[in-house]
Amino acid sequence: MTLRQQQKQQTRAALLEAARRLFVERGYAAVTVDDVTSEVGCSRATFYLHFNGKPDVLRRIGAETTQQRAASVYADLDAVLASGSRDRFTEWLRRALHWFEANRDILPVWDEAVALEPSFRPIATAAVAELPAAMPRYLQRWGASRGDEARLRVGLLVTQLERFFTRWAVQGTLDTTDTDPAETLTDIWYPALLPPEERHSAEQS
User: Taking a C-beta distance cutoff of 8 angstroms, is the pair 169, 101 a contact?
Assistant: First the structure.
């Protein structure tokens, strides 16, 4: 790699870091491209050499700076469900909640961008679609004719985990003092992710 290439990579990384920090501190709407470039000490032209705009830089923050890609969390779930182990599913839920904890600062920024930035919504939609796509064995068990339902169930799982984490760990409005959230979520979601014939078989055994 040439010195110029190294400098370009360093500038790009600095822009990502500055954008993430500003988004977390001020919120998505309050931050401008000029704010980001001022933090780094570069021009708008330099910013646009690397990113198409605020939605693009937030997309790259999600892809490159989150602690563990969300898709890998759901690839892990694919293996867990294939094992047929309820206990392993409970452990996966604990790992998933740890993922939310590790990335809790950027999640409200993502939600704000979805609500306020129409051009960001397709990015968010594609990011959610990546999750069931990372679960080929799970989708195969549901079959092609029920693929949309299988993907919807994963989307609903993602949504409930995000809202649960927000109310439980961020807002503190959901009290779980006397319960194990992972066990309760397992009661709800482990059977819900099984294809109907597997669910009926599990209920009868």
Answer: yes
- Residue pointed to by tokens 């989307």: 155
pTM to 2 decimal places: 0.87
Do 55 and 117 touch, CB atoms closer than 8 A?
yes
Q: What percent of the chain has pLDDT over 90?
A: 83
Q: What per-residue confidence (pLDDT) applies to 66?
A: 73
Q: Domain residue spans in the chain? A: 1-51, 54-203
Query: How far apart, in whole angstroms, are the C-alpha atoms of residue 4 and residue 10?
Result: 10
What is the distance between the terminal CA atoms of the chain, rounded to a whole angstrom?
A: 60
Classify 1-51 by CATH class: mainly alpha
**From 57-61, 68-72, 152-156, the region with the lowest mean pLDDT:** 68-72
* Dist CA 108 CA 113 (whole Å): 9
Tokens 């051009």 belong to which residue?
119
Q: Which residues have CB under 8 Å from 101's CB, separation 6+?
A: 165, 169
| 89 CA to centre of own chain | 18
